[in-house]
Amino acid sequence: MNLFRAARAVAGSEGDSPVDWTAVGTAARAGTASGDLSLSEADREGYAADVADARSEIRAASGIEFDLPKAVEIQHRHHWIDANVETFRRLLIPLEGQAMVVPSIARAANTGTMALTLGFLANNVLGQYDPALLGDDEHRLYFVHPNVVKVADALDADLDRFRRWIAFHEVAHAAEFDAAPWLTERLESGMETAVSELATGRFDRETLADIDVTMTAVEGYAELVMDRAFDEEYTDLREKLDAKRQDVGPISALLRRVLGFGRKRRQYERGKAFFDVVADERGVTGAAAVWERPENLPTDEELDDPEAWLRRVE
Questions:
Q1: Dist CA 263 CA 286 (whole Å)
Q2: What percentage of the chain reaches a pLDDT higher than 90?
Q3: pTM as predicted
């Protein structure tokens, strides 16, 4: 980690755009320790077995036939930054289109903010299913190995069991996005609309609320399938991870709030509560009806009233 190099990259940001994305990547990597990626053969075999077993168990539990992404990668934090800089850039293209002359101070501030964001996320992401949003055409599945090891150690959890549990969650995302080809387009369209509106000075609450409801369903279903398909005990892992999410320092807590980590946690909890009721009534396979067509997504009101969704969707 080289904070001086990170600061120099931000200060030296250039170009006509509000953000110098090359400098973002340089600064984020310089300000973030990559972490150890020296994997043993057992580690590699463990990841491969976990992903393959998760696919089999989730297929059986959910009733969804799906394939894994061709790209399944075990990364360190710099790899994750490199994989996501371009996604962030594509997301914010509408803002660049609205920009006029950008003062160097403003560009440096924007570049520094994005570098800090990517660096913070790179230190916290355990696994990521990337559903090929915003112009990318290849689904991917990432595991950030140094973070998996760090969190397992912090939780005093068995590394193999913790890694396997994370694999089940990410593979559950692969199942739902494969089951609902329209889901990627829905999220992509919503994000592009929200950012385009923001570029013109408008805050599109309706679109953002729709994205939140959709992501609550996405995360809640993944949590349901993760737990009900997982072939080992997991209660202690969930309790420890929930406790860790709340036990953070003031700076980390501020960043988590700014980056929406609190909203993400609410999505997990609210979505899981909804799907638990649905699955108890119709089984996990019945819960998969949510992905049959966009109209089957729960509304904001139905997320808090699963019985209403059960009456509406047969």
A1: 27
A2: 52
A3: 0.86
